[in-house]
Write a structure and sequence with these properties.
alpha/beta, six-stranded parallel beta sheet, single chain, about 35% helix
Length: about 290
């Protein structure tokens, strides 16, 4: 007896990747779209990005989502790079083209902007934003905010040179500094929105040693501001809980995860993503 095999296979690669929510999100999307695809997770350690792309060619895989620590490696190894990838130096999505070449894309910025609109009903145009962190996620958010018309994007990081580099991605709107004073913004208090793009507060369970940490003092924020924490493990970080107790509108990173996945789905399939299904699957949790 033979079993039916899927028409195409896509996957998330990274380390760790086995407990990613991405398989649940994409498999729900494939089912809703009525296409015979399957999505899985491959653990690929640092240094394996280029080899993973070669395996993608040989196995004729339909697409890769890319997580840490491979985003820079696959960006370098791909045949073509989108503008965002050239600027950010990182890719979170690999798209195989009909001619055999591999295209590196980054859907994080689009995912953040779409998630912000879905969760808070906000468009970035004219907003003054303080961004905590200067890593890959922060750079993608800075790019997305600037492209969408944010008035100011102030980046706060413990390492000034990294803050400046992330702020430069936002071009004329970008500034770097410390929490007490960021350029023309009077620190966090003058911002319309504060975004945590660090991993502070992340933890898979209550026993995780860093789960009670906060990226900044929640008393610096006030009702009327919006806060977004890109962390989604746990769904409510200690920082989000403290902000909500203060009456601050606060959202986690789950919508960004779902919307960046939706953008990748559309790049791979050419089909409009079933976003509502993907958001529900993201909320439901991990597979495996």
């Amino acid at each position: 007896m033979t079993s039916a095999r899927p028409e195409r296979v896509a996957a998330v690669i990274g380390d760790p990747a086995r407990h990613s929510r991405s398989p649940a999100i994409h498999n729900a999307a494939f089912a809703a779209a009525g296409i015979d695809w399957v999505y899985t997770a491959f653990e690929v350690p640092a240094g394996g990005g280029a080899a993973a792309l070669e395996a993608m060619r040989v196995l004729q895989l339909a697409g890769f989502s890319v997580t840490m620590p491979l985003k820079a490696e696959v960006a370098e190894a791909a045949d073509l790079r989108d503008d965002e990838v050239e600027v950010l130096g990182a890719a979170n999505c690999i798209v195989p083209l009909d001619d055999g070449r591999l295209r590196a894309a980054n859907t994080d910025a689009a995912g953040f902007i779409a998630g912000l609109n879905a969760d808070a009903g906000l468009e970035p145009e004219g907003l003054r934003v303080v961004l905590l962190g200067a890593g890959g996620a922060a750079r993608a958010v800075a790019w997305g905010l600037a492209a969408a018309g944010a008035a100011e994007v102030a980046v706060i990081n413990r390492t000034p040179s990294k803050a400046r580099a992330a702020a430069d991605i936002a071009n004329a709107t970008g500034e770097a500094g410390q929490p007490g004073r960021v350029g023309s913004l009077d620190g966090i208090a003058a911002a319309d929105m504060v975004v945590n793009a660090t991993s502070v507060g992340m933890g898979a369970d209550a026993a995780h040693p860093g789960r009670s940490a906060m990226p900044c003092d929640p008393t610096l924020l006030r009702p009327g501001q919006v806060a977004v924490d890109l962390v989604y493990e746990p769904l409510e970080t200690a920082w989000l809980a403290a902000l909500r107790r203060r009456g601050v509108e606060a959202h986690n990173g789950l919508s960004m995860l779902a919307y960046q996945a939706a953008a990748a789905f559309e790049l791979w399939t050419g089909i409009e993503a079933p976003v509502d299904v993907m958001r529900q699957a993201a909320t439901a949790g991990r597979t495996g």
